[in-house]
Structures are given as structure tokens and as C-alpha cells.
Amino acid sequence: MVPKLWNETIKAHRHAVCEAILDTTWALVTEYGPTSVTMSQIAEETGIGRATLYKYFSSVEAILVAWHECQVTRHLEHLTEVRDQAGDAGERLEAVLEAYALIAYEHHGTELAALLHRGEHVARAQHKLSALIRDLLTEAVETGDVRNDVAPDELARYCLHALAGASSLPSKAAVRRLVTVILAGLHSPAATPAAAGAATTTPPGRRRTGRRS
Fold first, then answer.
1. What is each CA distance from 88 to 45, 96, 132, 137, 193, in whole angstroms?
2. pTM
3. CB under 8 Å to 127, separation ≥6 — which residues?
């Protein structure tokens, strides 16, 4: 039998080589573009032979998908940490929405992003993300921080679609304003000062009219 220590050493070595391949490929693609990078370049820059590279990955696209899968996993782990570090239900929801919006802002759409977002791992990550936000919304509904006239599943979809807009915003300040608007939409209409004021305030330039007997 192969000693356990040897197995762990081999596993660690393979992991290190894989990480080096992913990082090298991303650096090359960032500099030259996804269509200009070859497996030979990646092998040379990583410091391994082409045969060794092909033992790990079959193509440049396969490497990029693996890299993206690692990034998606890290993003989900980050959002979970943000949730666990925040305070009450409302604060947890706001913190996670803002963190996700900033991720979308920093990884705005490109030709490469369109390529990477076609993998099955993206669908799995979207499912986990939707469940994370839905659970936060459910908690916030129970504490009265979020409206209860719309199902949490529907509110989660609203949040995700709205937050996708962060990818095209010009600044982090704009991203935070977007999150503020989204949060306002999540509150119960009856609980918002604007809604309450609208029910009692006469619009400028108009007079109240009543029936004359």
C-alpha cells in the first residue's frame, strides 16, 4: 500500500499544479484575450510540459471554466461569511445584497464572462444564491423588515434581476444607491413614510374637492 503521507504529498502537488495552471491561464487571457492564448503558452508560462498540462485539462476553455467555478465558489463563501457577520435579519439581508451587487459591479459583462456563464456550475451557483437570498427574505418577513404580501421566492427573483444592473453602473456609490432602491421596494408599502404621506398629502397645484350637497 502507498503510505498515507505520500498520498497527501501527491494530492497537494497536484492541487498546486492545478492552481498554477488556473492562475497562469487567467493572467494570459486577461492580457491577450481568450482567443489568443494556446495550451503551449500556458504550459510554458506555468513551467510544465504540454503532456502534463493535458493530463489536467483538455483545452483553454476547460481551464477557464474551472477557474470560473473556483471564483463562483469563493463568491458564495464570501456571501455566506457576510451573512454570518451581520446583525439582525434586516442587516443580514442588506449586507448580502450589497456584497453581491459589488461582486456584479467588479465582474461586469465581457465576451469572456458570456463564455464562462454557460457552464452547469453557474446554474448550480445561481440556485444556491437564490436559496441564500430567499432564506434571508423569509427571516426578514418574520421580523417585519420585509413586506409579506409577496412570496419570498418572487422577492428573491426581483432582487437578483435588479442587482444584475450593478454590472453596468459607473461607481460603487451608484451600486450602493441601487441597493437602497431595491431595499425600499422590499419594504411593506404601508410601512414606508412616502406611502403614508401620499395618502394624506394633496399634490401641489391641486385642490381637494368634495361633493356639494
1. 48, 12, 15, 12, 22
2. 0.69
3. none
Distance between CA atoms of 209 and 69, rounded to whole angstroms? 63
Cβ density class 31-57: b for 16+ within 10 Å, e for less: eeebeebebeebbebbebeeeebeebb
Asked if residue 63 lies in contact with residue 28, where contact means CB atoms within 8 angstroms, the answer is no
Tens digit of each residue's pLDDT (9 = 90 or more) over 155-172: 999 999 999 888 888 999
Q: What 3-state DSSP class applies to 206?
A: coil
Closest CA to 164 of 115, 117, 201: 117
In whole angstroms, what is the distance from residue 53 CA to residue 48 CA?
7
CA distance 108 to 105: 6
Q: Which domains does the chain have, with CATH numbers?
A: 1-58 (1.10.10.60), 61-188 (1.10.357.10)
Give CA–CA dist 104/113, Å, rounded. 11
Non-local CB neighbours of 87 within 8 Å, separated by 6+ positions: none
Q: CB–CB of 76/128 below 8 Å?
A: yes
Amino acid at 186: L
Q: Spell out, as residue ranges, where the chain has pLDDT lower than 50.
A: 1-2, 109, 191-213
Give the residue among 117, 120, 155, 131 at the shortest CA–CA distance from 80.
131
